[in-house]
Specification:
The structure is a single chain. This protein is of the alpha+beta class and 628 residues long. It has helices at 16-51, 57-90, 100-117, 120-123, 129-156, 158-161, 165-202, 209-233, 240-243, 251-259, 262-292, 300-323, 326-346, 351-362, 366-385, 390-394, 396-419, 424-440, 445-460, 582-587, and strands spanning 477-481, 486-489, 507-512, 516-518, 523-528, 534-538, 544-551, 561-563, 570-571, 576-580, 591-598, 604-607, 614-615, 620-626. Helix 7 crosses helix 15 and helix 13 packs antiparallel against helix 18.
Length: 628
């Protein structure tokens, strides 16, 4: 019995490309979030404080009313528009992938239009305010569409960066952490920048037009640099799972992808309950400090505590998630929120106890858990319907945030001033979110791994889109080398996890005599399963082979496996790619057989297969040839 490998895989060191990818994605949301903060918060301040200086009060008020009303209206319309924009992104196919073109051009166009808006459309309102109003509507709607393209593409990219739930949690938490910096950083730099550049232009230290334009220009430049970092530093994985999905989706498919996927709808509903509670509470807290506690000067602590806690929660999330399932992290966060409400209700007489309540209120991973659950629901939906709507699915969470904002505008005043139940209603909403998540959200990290495994079985059987084109006659034959020592057997003799005989697909299996896997030919690692027990290697000619260690080993969640490659890495025949602990696999009740199957069974035939032979790794075992 082979015992050369360790019980658990040693810690994997990140490659240079992984460091670059994570850093680029993280930096991407610094500028992206700051840009959104400028438009959602500070543009309105600019509009009301200086854009219409010199106009009559009646005209200025009309234009201010138009702008504020348009912004609210567009936010509501986005509930329908965002999924359609997501569908456009999902149907995009370029040499740079589907997301990067929209991230880059979305930022370029929206950035240019933002600068135009911060000039007051070059002072047009003072010349012809009617024409200004018409152009403003056109420019703002165009601006918002292109910003939404970049926003949907940024978050939609997460499932394309990795199929591993843990790796996805790292990217998501890095993005959330960077967003905190970008959003809250504006409050630190806005006044110094605006007043300094106004002084340089006018000699007066006030918040003038020149200062506001400079502020917008600096943040726009930061957003463009962040977009470039994402485009240059990250790489979409073009693997068999993504290739197998339906390549084009219609408008009908868009809404079908959302409403017919229960693991989108239930997490979204749970998040809606949480988001309403969170936003309403933030609105009510001002009333509490001003009118109930009588300490309006202490209200600044609310923002400081939220920022500090956010700096810790997001980076620590992937570490906690490595040991604690997402549903329990969601539950713990909601329990902390409920405890905070109890303090807000019964402990408001002590300002320091209130600070503890604010800490508990912000110790919450609901947004991160929701994004990751929705991300994993992409493969779940692909298994059910054949559709892989990455951008559409990841547009759901921003849609909920926009819906919550609209709902909270009506609820805050009613809850705080009419009912006198400022925290009871959001507390109930928080409890409802826990009930929904625990009872209806079944897509755990373990189940997601099983979903990916089922997708693999369908691909082995030849179900799914064929992504590789035919190649020239000179490239049609590939010699396959044995990836492991052992006895070669037919796939028909493999016993599946459910006890049935016969593994689907075209290929072979090897009863291993050793716990080491070597490259069966020169090629590129296209895809590594999140549980490290399987990977796809593709030759330069486009012939793909999946090497899958064990039956049922997906349930081991990576224990006993040690990989020596990175996705996208070029490897050579005979190069050590993986070590696995055969003893641990067998002791866990699973079969350690190594299954190898072609990813294009309809296009490739297997010849000269040495069934029944005992082979050593590196020996020719078969030939794969494109059908004529």
């Amino acid at each position: 019995m082979d015992t050369t490998t360790k019980t658990a895989a040693p810690r994997q060191h990140l490659s240079k490309q992984q460091w670059i990818s994570r850093s680029a994605f993280c930096f991407g949301n610094v500028g992206h979030s700051a840009f959104y903060g400028v438009m959602s918060n500070y543009f309105i301040i600019f509009v009301t404080s200086g854009m219409f200086a010199g106009l009559s009060k009646s005209v200025a008020n009309r234009l201010i009313g138009l702008i504020t009303g348009l912004i609210v209206g567009v936010r509501i319309i986005e509930l329908v528009i965002d999924p359609l924009l997501g569908n456009i992104v999902d149907n995009t196919h370029t040499r740079w992938g589907k997301f990067k073109p929209w991230i880059l051009w979305g930022n370029i166009v929206s950035g240019a239009l933002l600068l135009v808006l911060f000039t007051g459309i070059f002072g047009l309102a003072k010349v012809n305010w009617v024409l200004f109003a018409i152009l403003f509507v056109v420019i703002f709607i165009t601006f918002d569409i292109f910003y939404s393209f970049s926003d949907i593409s940024y978050w939609g990219m997460v499932p394309a960066l990795s199929e591993d739930s843990h790796e996805r949690s790292i990217y998501t938490s890095l993005g959330a952490f960077a967003g905190t910096i970008g959003w809250n950083g504006l409050t630190i730099i806005v006044v110094p920048i605006v007043t300094t550049f106004t002084y340089l232009a006018t000699g007066h230290r006030t918040e003038g037009l020149a200062g506001w334009f400079a502020f917008a220009a600096i943040i726009t430049l930061l957003a463009l640099l962040s977009a470039l970092a994402v485009c240059l530093g990250t790489k979409e994985n073009d693997n068999i799972i993504r290739q197998s999905a339906k390549q084009k989706t219609s408008i009908k498919d868009v809404f079908s992808a959302i409403f017919h996927n229960d693991q989108i709808m239930w997490p979204a509903l749970a998040y809606l309950m949480y988001s309403c509670a969170y936003v309403v509470t933030n609105g009510v807290l001002f009333y509490l400090y001003k009118f109930v506690i009588g300490e309006p000067g202490h209200f600044w602590v609310v923002g400081v505590i939220a920022t500090i806690v956010g700096f810790f929660v997001s980076p620590l999330f992937p570490i906690f998630n490595k040991y604690v399932p997402r549903k329990w992290l969601f539950t713990i966060g909601q329990c902390c929120m409920v405890a905070a409400y109890l303090i807000f209700i019964f402990g408001r007489s002590n300002i320091y106890v209130m600070d503890l309540g604010l800490v508990l209120f912000n110790v919450n991973c609901a947004q991160l858990v929701t994004v990751l659950t929705l991300t994993d629901a992409i493969e779940y939906g692909q298994l059910k319907s054949g559709q892989r709507n990455e951008a559409v699915v990841l547009a759901v969470r921003p849609m909920i945030d926009k819906l919550t904002g609209a709902i909270s505008n009506g609820l805050v005043g009613w809850i705080a001033l009419v009912c006198g139940m400022a925290f009871y209603i959001p507390m109930v909403l928080g409890l409802l979110s826990v009930v929904i998540f625990l009872s209806k959200v079944t897509l755990s990290e373990k189940k997601h791994a099983q979903v990916v495994e089922e997708l693999k079985n369908e691909l082995a059987a030849g179900n799914g889109a064929e992504a590789v084109e035919d190649v020239s006659a000179a490239q049609t034959t590939l010699t396959l080398l044995a990836p492991v020592d052992g006895e070669v057997v037919d796939l028909a003799s493999v016993t599946n996890e459910d006890g049935t005989k016969g593994f689907p697909g075209k290929g072979f299996a090897i009863k291993p005599a050793d716990g080491r896997i070597y490259a069966p030919f020169d090629g590129t690692i296209k895809f590594a399963f999140s549980t490290q027990h399987a990977f796809e290697i593709e030759s330069a000619a486009g012939i793909g082979l999946v090497v899958h260690v064990g039956i049922g080993t997906v349930n081991m969640r990576g224990a006993g496996f040690n990989i020596h490659f990175q996705e996208g890495q070029t490897v050579h025949a005979g190069e050590l790619l993986m070590e696995f602990n055969r003893d641990l696999i067998l002791q866990s009740g699973y079969d350690d057989i190594v299954v190898d199957f072609l990813t294009q069974p309809q296009k490739v035939q297997l010849q000269e297969l040495r069934l029944g032979d005992k082979v050593e790794h590196g020996q020719p075992i078969a030939k794969a040839e494109y059908k004529k």
